[in-house]
Automatic annotation (TrEMBL):
This is FBX21 protein. PANTHER family: HEMIMETHYLATED DNA-BINDING DOMAIN-CONTAINING PROTEIN. Gene3D superfamilies: Hemimethylated DNA-binding domain. Residues 1-26 form the signal peptide. It comes from the Eukaryota. One of its GO terms (molecular function) is DNA binding. Keywords: Signal. InterPro entries: Clp_protease_adapter_ClpF, Hemimethylated_DNA-bd_dom, Hemimethylated_DNA-bd_sf. It holds the Pfam family YccV-like. SMART domains: YccV-like. Residues 121-223 form the Hemimethylated DNA-binding domain. Coiled coil: none annotated. The lineage of its organism: Eukaryota, Metazoa, Chordata, Craniata, Vertebrata. It comes from Calcarius ornatus (Chestnut-collared longspur).
Length: 233
């Protein structure tokens, strides 16, 4: 496309206003039809001459194209480099992100996504002290999932055949009270396996201060970072 400079803009304007100008001139200066015809002919001839010199001329188009290419070649080269870099950068990051989703920290109620809204069927809250119905250990809830969230290879053998439906019930991550002398420090259990107990303030675990800042008489108070993940608990 030719470069449009001031002269070209003027020529285009002349073409656009040729007919209106002919009409006005004929109204103001032409008193008879012969004179109006002469004025019209002169305007048409002048407009055609301008257009043939500038827009119907192969040389004019060639010169304009050369000028445009000379100005845009560098820009196009830079844009191609930027596009290539962006495709490489975001493609690689997407691959890394996909790999991160498979890491264990996203399982067992340790996901970093905000748990909101909270379903009504989630009975217990982060910070409540619980006791395991079968094993008898106490502990404190530090997270929950709406259903079991474990690696696939661990999900099937986790439950006996008669209790496979537990996979689809709420699950809680527990810091186990060290005072119980239980062999594990954490647990991931279904809702039906635990019950909340009141009046037990002290839960001994090395990670308590990471998750909680104190005790309010009924449950442990979440640290700000944990409260952001469980805003309704």
């Amino acid at each position: 496309m030719p470069h449009i400079n001031a002269a070209a803009a003027l020529q285009i304007s002349m073409l656009l206003f040729a007919l209106p100008a002919q009409y006005l001139i004929s109204q103001w200066y032409g008193t008879d039809s012969a004179e109006r015809i002469q004025i019209t002919e002169r305007l048409i001839i002048a407009s055609w001459s301008i257009s043939t010199r500038s827009y119907l001329s192969l040389d004019a188009w060639a010169d304009g194209l050369k000028l445009w290419l000379s100005k845009t070649r560098t820009c196009l080269y830079v844009e191609l480099l930027i596009l290539h870099f962006r495709n490489w950068y975001y493609g690689e990051n997407k691959t890394k992100s996909g790999a991160n989703e498979e890491k264990p920290h996203s399982y067992l109620a340790e996901s970093a996504h905000v748990h909101s809204p909270k379903p009504e069927y989630i009975k217990f809250r982060v910070g409540q002290v619980i006791i395991h119905r079968r094993f008898g250990y106490s502990g404190v809830i530090v997270g929950w999932d709406v259903k079991a969230n474990t690696p696939k290879e661990q999900l099937q053998p986790r439950y006996p055949p008669v209790k496979q439906d537990l996979k689809d019930t709420p699950h809680y991550r527990i810091l186990i009270n060290k005072a119980n002398g239980f062999g594990k420090s954490t647990a991931y259990v279904s809702e039906e396996e635990i019950t909340v107990i009141m009046g037990l303030e002290v839960v001994y675990h090395p990670d308590m201060e990471t998750y909680f800042s104190g005790y309010d008489g009924s449950k442990y108070i979440m640290q700000p970072w944990l409260k952001k993940l469980y805003p309704h608990d």
